[in-house]
Amino acid sequence: MKYCSKCGRELFDKDIECDKCKSIDFISEKECKEIIREINNANMFSKKKLLKDPIYKMVNDFIINKPKDYFNACIINSNNDSNEEYFDRIKKHTINNKQKNIPKCPTCGSTNIRKIGGIERGASIAAFGIFSKKINKTFKCGNCGYTW
Fold first, then answer.
1. Judging by DSSP bridges, how do beta strands 26-28 and 113-115 pair with one another?
2. Could you tell me the end-to-end alpha-carbon distance of the chain, in angstroms, rounded to an integer?
């Protein structure tokens, strides 16, 4: 996750701009946690000095002192979006961007691979013994012939 440096909105790592204020400036979750730690550990005078920095002020106002949402059965999300906008935002990052787990050849990156069968492995071991190239191998690339 990352945060918009203008409005403090929590965004997905894949977002290229804030969908609320259209800013393209972000701070990482790690950087935000570090700023929160600094603000929380500062005394009153140091805190005033830190809050003169716009990033620290944004983190303090929008993340640390974020208004608490009270439970309301009529409200599903807390982003002030309509339910349709909220679910479209979630779908954009989850459902449409699923990557299939397709194995690839580690040498050439091809997906033209096949599983080495038990009979083929057994025949190779019978012919070459412990010098067989197919002992402890599972796949073979159809393009470059690499086995792994």
1. unpaired
2. 35
